[in-house]
Structure formats: structure tokens, C-alpha cells
Amino acid sequence: MTEYKMFEGCTIGNRIPFIEASSRKVLDKIGVQTSQAPFTCCPDPTGVKSFDNMAWLALGARNLCLAEAEGKPIISLCNGCTNTLRGVQHQLKHDSLKKEKVNAELAKIGKEFKGTIDVVHFVDVLKENLDKVKAGITKQMSDLKVACHPGCHYMRPAEWMESDDPMRPKNLKEIVAATGANVIDYDELALCCGNAVAGPYPEHGDAILKQKMDSIKKAGANVIVVNCPACFQRFDTSQRDLSKKFEAEYNIPVLYLTELIALAMGVSSEEIGMKNHRVRRNTAIENL
Amino acid sequence: MTLPLGIDFEFRKLIMDVHIGSDKIKYCYQCNRCTDNCPVANVANPFYREVTNWFDPRLIVLGTLLGYKDIVMALAGSKSALIPWGCTVCDTCDTVCPQAIEVTEIITLAKNVTTGAGLAPDNVVAQAKAVFESAKAIPSQPAIERRREQLGLPAVAAPDVNEVQTLLKNIGVDKKL
After folding, report:
1. Residue in A47, A197, A273 closest to B86 by CB
2. Which of A66, B12, B31, B164 has the maximum number of C-beta atoms within 10 A of its C-beta?
3. pLDDT digit string (tens) for A46-105?
4. A86 has a chain B CB within 8 A of its CB
5. Nearest C-alpha of chain B: how many angstroms from A172?
6. How far apart are CA B83 and CA B68, in angstroms?
7. How many structural domains compose chain A?
8. In Å, what is the CA distance from B6 to each residue of B2, B12, B71, B76?
9. Chain A contact for B57, CB < 8 A?
């Protein structure tokens, strides 16, 4: 059995650790083993990469070196971290000039990027083990009408991620359906949550989120399921402000995919710290 | 060197080097599919909406492809300028481009050039500072450490901050912070 190096990332590890709690529960239940490593920030493919691409490559490669030293693949709980680690790996494997430059810097701290390990997103691990996920489910989630939001960096750029159809993603829907929940189709499935532009330009970020939320509301969903902590925070913390700003009602609860599966496996919401969500649970979730 | 036309060959070479295989950007025929599918252009482009401050990936590709650094940098020349900082890094343009041009990588380079000039948005600089100082974009906090414990989670493995600082200093990141 493969043991993965757990890459929880900065947002989950140091801000919303309850997501790590449900993730570890689900991985335990399907028999996926993990261990820790002193990883740094991945670093952020929307932040540090925009600041300095060379720093992004070098820090990302250094993280890959830590897993290479143990010869173990990385499992990431976050779209951004997966995107960075797979993107750095892709660029260094296919661009010898970049690889030479990065390795010259890594040599000064006694490291070398070789490109010998794989980086996987937890969604892909769940999909690969879907029979075990299904076998662990004790409670059908049939009251839920789920709008799936896989987020940009789970499947784009397709050349780096090699995970799903970049504009018509289906993996998240398939896993959600396995819990007995009803997957609701909506027009803006592949649309960004607007997180990165919301930093410098909140008005544009809000306009994009509104477009997304309107599409989700129109489709009649009573919960949003995500697999990225940045998207999770965006949906969970911005709906109240969005309601005030546009004088409309946006209060659809958000579940991380691993929270949905943990609940379906009979884990209690207390055990996985769901009280830390901002958007109040609606009756559909209370009744679970 | 900069010719009277304002073509900057150094800048053009930087842009060419963004792509693996180097010259893909030459094959842009300005079809506008990147801008048509850009979620930010959709909410910040006068063609689609009444806005004065606009975002247009196609124009960034054109300006960089021709080596018009002055044009690109004039647009990017103020702090947090919408071009290039309006890009939300969703990678939709890369996906829909019929010529497989990595538009987001080009915009990333434009962003990188502005950070050297101290024009990056505050939140981006703050994150880079946090990574330099603590090796994490979000440093560890006692309240969250307690919450991790309550949830039965192991402590986050502490990264080697000194080694990260050495690496980033050698690249020259500290001078841009």
C-alpha cells in the first residue's frame, strides 16, 4: 500500500484545520496511509507565482525534493497546492533551462530536483478508491441537492493537472453522487469563484461570485460541495456581504467534499468541527 | 534596446522564454477567444459592460508579442493596475486558446515585471513577505494550534525557515519585498 506525504497546505493547516480533520477521517476509512513532512508554503499559484515566478519554481521544487528524499508521492488537500506542485514538476520536466536554473539554486542549499515522485489531488485518490468510499457509506445523502464546484486549479491548465475535462469537469460530481446525494447541474460549473481578483479588485471578484451564486440558486441547489480551501472560504465567508451588496438572499451552506463523505460514513459533525463554518446550516444539513 | 517604435527586444525575449518550446506566442492570430471566455473581462470590459477600467487578455498578448513593453507597462504602470493584476489565474484562457498559448504565464510575467518596480497589490506583497518570514503564506497561530489539538490533528511539521530565506535571498526576492 502506498504511503503518501500529506500536504495539507497553509490555508487548511493554519486557518481552517477542520477540513483536515474530515479529510484524515475519510482517508483512514478507505485505508490510505499518510505521513508528515516539514513542507513550506507550496507556494500559492495566484500569489507568490504572480510576485516572482522563479521563487515559485524554487520553493515548489524544494517541497518536491523533501518527498523525493523519502521516495513517496504527495497527496494534497488543496487545489492551489496541487496546481503549484504539479505545475512546477511539469515546467521543470519539460524545460531544461528552467530546471538548470532551479537546480543551481537548490544546490546551494544541498538539494536537487529530480522529478521522481508523483503529486496527486485527494479527489483523484478518492476517485481511484471509489469502491472503498461506497463501501464505507452508511447514510444516504438523498436530501441534498448539490451544486458541485471543483474550482479552477483542480483541472486547469489541463497539461499540468491531467485530472479531468478542463471545462466540463465530472470527477467531483461522480464522487458526490456516490454518497446518494442528488447532483444538480448548473450553467456556471466551470466558472472561477473570483478569489484571486477579489484581493486587489473586490468589485470584480463580487461580480463573478454573484454570477456563480445566481446560477447555483437558479438550479435549486441546497448545498455547495467544493474541493479547494480557497473556494471554500470564498463561498463560506462572502455570501453574507454579497447579500447586503446586491440586496438578494445568498445563504447556501458549503461542504468540503471530505465533510460530505465523512457525514455519509456516519462521522458526527462535532467530530469534524463543522461548527466552524460561517454560513448557517440549513434544514437539509441539520437533518443529516 | 528600445527602437523609436517602442519595440523592446529584451522584453520580447522574456515573453518568448515563458513558453516551453519558446515561440508559441507568435501563432496568436488575435481571435479574442481568451477575452471572450475571461470571467474578469466579462465583468470589466467596456465591450460587455459599461466600465471605465477594463481588462483584456487579448490585448496583453498582442502588446507582449510585439514587444511593446511601453504599452504594456503604461497599462501596468500604477500600483495594482487592473492590467495585469485583474487576472484571477483561472487558466480559462489557456484552455480555450486554439493555438495553445499559455496566456496566464504571459500575464504572470507581466505581473512579475511590475513587482520588481514596487507596483504589486498589497495583499500579494503581504503574502510574499509572510512566506519569506515564516515559510508559510499563513503563519502558525496559537489559537489554530489549539483547535488542531481539539480536533485530534497532529501539529503541522515546522518548515526550515532559515533554508527558505537563504534560497529566496539568493534569488533576490528579499529586495522586492
Report:
1. A197
2. B164
3. 999 999 999 999 999 999 999 999 999 999 999 999 999 999 999 999 999 999 999 999
4. no
5. 18
6. 14
7. 2
8. 6, 11, 8, 16
9. no
